[in-house]
Amino acid sequence: MVTAKEGRDRLIFALDYPSASAALEGAAKVAGHVGMVKVGLELFTQEGPAALGLGAAAEARVFLDLKLHDIPATVGRAVAAISRLARSQPVKLLTVHASGGRAMLEEAIQRADGLDIVAVTVLTSLDADDLAALGTQLAAEAPVAAQVERLGLLAWSAGVRHFVCSPAEAPVLRAALGPDATLITPGVRPAGDAAGDQKRICTPAQAIAGGADRLVVGRPIRDADDPAAKADAIAAEIAAATP
Ligand code: C5P
């Protein structure tokens, strides 16, 4: 059990809205009730750096989910550019693909200033057949989890300390990386909420018990009658489940 504030700090609200104005309205509804807001590729591509202002609207820091993946020099320069934006905007986390390789990850870490680099392991949209089609050498048992572990260890050795994985893979990654890794998991649904298009879901308490540190939650908060109250309930569940 941790404090209610710490529970809230661990909650990341995904700002999945069709327009910037709707996102602004949604962010304002949860102001002070979530630790971070997630700004994704679509919103950032559409709105540019102005999208980072949604953090202030939500009174929260920004998880900028751009999933960068390019040659080391290009990713390094992009990370440096976002670090400059982070001087005036509350950007705290930035995602890159672990599969970009060691040199890319090291460059991202080196060029990050004032924000933490988060490595995305295996996209949950990919299954073992997809990985095989990409030429990945698969382990005989639990091939996707083994690939998550391999990419997690690669990113860790490059200096990354924050990771995105599915709740199903959090225990494997926690066992591989130890207590100092920060694990961020989507696919979370409070008991009784609609799954939507999420196939493998778990409750906030289950995600925390499996080793997650921060949870990304979108539709359950966005579509609630009272988004702030819903965020409070999820934050309370996180706080109660956190050892
Ligand atoms: O609405 P929901 O809670 O499912 O939203 C979860 C957020 O996390 C969405 O922004 C979604 O794109 C993102 N996400 C996910 N599953 C992943 C990676 C990201 O649901 N494996």
Chain-wise SSE layout:
Elements: H1 4-9, E1 11-14, H2 20-29, E2 36-40, H3 41-47, H4 54-57, E3 61-68, H5 72-85, E4 91-97, H6 102-111, E5 116-120, H7 128-133, H8 143-157, E6 162-164, H9 170-177, E7 182-185, H10 204-209, E8 214-217, H11 219-222, H12 227-241
Parallel strand pairs: 1-2, 1-8, 2-3, 3-4, 4-5, 5-6, 6-7, 7-8
Helix pairs in contact: 5-6, 8-9
The structure holds cytidine-5'-monophosphate.
Cytidine-5'-monophosphate binds next to strand 2, strand 8 and helix 11.
- Structural category is alpha/beta
The tally of helices reads: 12
Listing every helix as H and every strand as E from the N terminus to the C terminus, the arrangement reads HEHEHHEHEHEHHEHEHEHH
Strand order of the largest sheet: 1-2-3-4-5-6-7-8
Strand content: 15-25%
Question: For the residues shown, what is the average pLDDT?
Answer: 95
Considering DSSP H and I runs of 4 or more, what fraction of the residues is helical? Answer: 40-55%
Bound compounds, please?
A: cytidine-5'-monophosphate
How far is the N terminus from the C terminus? 5 Å
Overall shape: globular
Characterize the main sheet.
Answer: 8 strands, parallel, barrel
Which stretches are poorly predicted, pLDDT < 50 over at least 5 residues? none
**Gyration radius from CA atoms, angstroms:** 17 Å
The strand count comes to 8
